[in-house]
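Below is a filled-in request sheet from our internal design queue. Each sheet records the structural input a requester submitted and the sequence that came back. We keep these sheets so that new team members can see what a complete request looks like end to end.

REQUESTER: design group, bay 2
PRIORITY: normal
MODE: inverse folding
CHAIN LENGTH: 424
BACKBONE (tokenized):
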């Protein structure tokens, strides 16, 4: 049995997972998504073209690699169809290169409406959801009401759909003044269902078991980030799935004993999109400079990402929860604009020093405490080997490795596939 390697985000998402999965794909036979859905936006850049994937795993552009959408993922047939259409110019044999778990849940148009209505009702306390219907779909999954990919092949699928929609319409009626036109949304949705019917649907747990037995190498691709995990993130400002390594087991149907390497990915600084606590957020010109230099705007929603310095207590927590064995540090090039880089080493919470995340991070006064590290102040984007990297960057990496007690094996210096340095 081969082990399954995992790559996941250690911060609040958008760390650069898509890029690194694409870089690593030649080492694997299968790339598998295990949670999340179209709330994700994973960017890949190569040969002068930028691709953004939402539900489809980031191995789709490499010939000979099977991309699996696991049972833990939630699928919106409308967004999925659009994603497939964008792939059309690349002549990818989707029937062969893509497989979906029959147990993956479907996002209904009414899930999206419920997401919007719930966010609207929350007012100032809104989560800042991507409005893709993620929360309501996972609620129906755990509430045992959901529709799954396998259901679309059943003769009574429409009946099941109507039954669930009826329930949702009842729920929507509680949101006073919330108006919608369901018929308009249903047309494209059923069109998307037809597209799904023509793809390869599998029993993914069985599929994974056979693949592992046959010696296939698998990389599980996380979505979102550890600080957005439903259990371990900054609840309630989180997504509705387990984004951590443990989610790989439940989201693909593999045994905990088959987890191999865990590659944790983080930005050389920190970003967050949507509401919720962010201890190192910089609401000043430094934060704006990072946003501008890093082009920090959401790949799914286009929203401005909030920016701040790197947060070691949060990173250490993420490394602990995930059992990270190696790290990839992204967007080092963005910090080239600074003479001095700040690193949050611990927090002061109610006058007390803490180097881990307090329970009630949302309501406590969490003050980050920083150490300064010299910047490199030069362009990194043309570097082709780690040996050529400036001493200050090497120093930043060794400093973080020591603090995080984990090796940083990859340093990324630009969005393109080739702008990736192996440090070991
Ligand atoms: P993901 O959700 O984790 O896959 O990350 P996103 O694609 O949402 O956001 C990462 C953004 O940073 C994308 O626009 C990438 O093209 C870009 N990116 C990735 N690595 C680097 C890097 O090392 N430097 C720069 N400047 N951009 C990068
Ligand atoms: P990738 O995979 C960054 C955030 C939303 C919101 C919260 C809940 O590209 O890293 P949801 O729509 O899931 O109910 O939103 O989670 N969020 C993300 N932030 N990257 C993502 O995915 C995200 N997916 C969800 O902004 O704060
Ligand atoms: Mg993203």
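RETURNED SEQUENCE:
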């Amino acid at each position: 049995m081969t082990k399954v390697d995992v790559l996941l985000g250690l911060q609040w998402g958008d760390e650069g997972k898509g890029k690194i999965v694409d870089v690593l794909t030649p080492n694997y036979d299968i790339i598998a998504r295990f949670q999340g859905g179209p709330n994700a936006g994973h960017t890949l850049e190569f040969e002068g073209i930028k691709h953004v994937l939402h539900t489809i795993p980031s191995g789709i552009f490499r010939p000979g690699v099977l991309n699996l959408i696991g049972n833990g993922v939630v699928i919106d047939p409308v967004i999925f169809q659009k994603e497939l259409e964008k792939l059309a110019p690349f002549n990818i044999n989707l029937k062969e290169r893509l497989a979906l778990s029959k147990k993956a849940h479907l996002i209904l148009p009414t899930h999206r409406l419920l997401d919007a209505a719930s966010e609207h009702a929350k007012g100032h306390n809104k989560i800042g959801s991507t409005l893709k219907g993620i929360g309501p779909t996972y609620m129906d999954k755990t509430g045992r009401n959901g529709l799954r990919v396998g259901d679309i092949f059943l003769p009574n699928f429409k009946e099941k759909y109507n039954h669930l929609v009826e329930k949702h319409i009842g729920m929507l009626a509680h949101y006073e003044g919330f108006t919608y036109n369901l018929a308009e949304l249903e047309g494209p949705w059923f069109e998307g269902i037809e597209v799904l019917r023509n793809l390869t649907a599998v029993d993914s747990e069985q599929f994974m078991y056979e693949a592992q037995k046959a010696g296939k190498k698998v990389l599980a691709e996380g979505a979102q980030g550890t600080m957005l995990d439903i259990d371990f993130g900054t609840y309630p400002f989180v997504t509705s799935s387990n984004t951590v390594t443990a989610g790989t087991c439940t989201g693909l149907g593999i045994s905990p004993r088959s987890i191999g390497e865990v590659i944790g990915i983080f930005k050389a600084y920190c970003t967050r999109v949507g509401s919720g606590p962010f201890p190192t957020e910089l609401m000043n010109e430094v934060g704006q400079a990072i946003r501008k230099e890093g082009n920090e705007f959401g790949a799914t929603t286009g929203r401005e990402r909030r920016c701040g310095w790197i947060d070691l207590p949060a990173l250490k927590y993420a490394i602990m929860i995930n059992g990270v064995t190696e790290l990839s540090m992204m967007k080092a090039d963005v910090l080239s604009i600074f003479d001095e880089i700040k690193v949050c080493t611990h927090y002061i919470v109610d006058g007390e020093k803490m180097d881990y995340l307090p329970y009630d991070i949302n309501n406590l006064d969490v003050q980050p405490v920083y150490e300064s590290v010299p910047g490199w102040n030069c362009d990194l984007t043309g570097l082709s080997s780690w040996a050529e990297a400036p001493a200050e960057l090497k120093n930043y990496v060794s400093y973080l490795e020591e603090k995080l007690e984990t090796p940083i094996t990859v340093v990324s210096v630009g969005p393109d596939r080739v702008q990736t340095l192996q440090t070991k």
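SHEET NOTES:
- The mean pLDDT is 96.
- DSSP finds twelve helices and 20 strands in the chain.
FILED BY: M.R.
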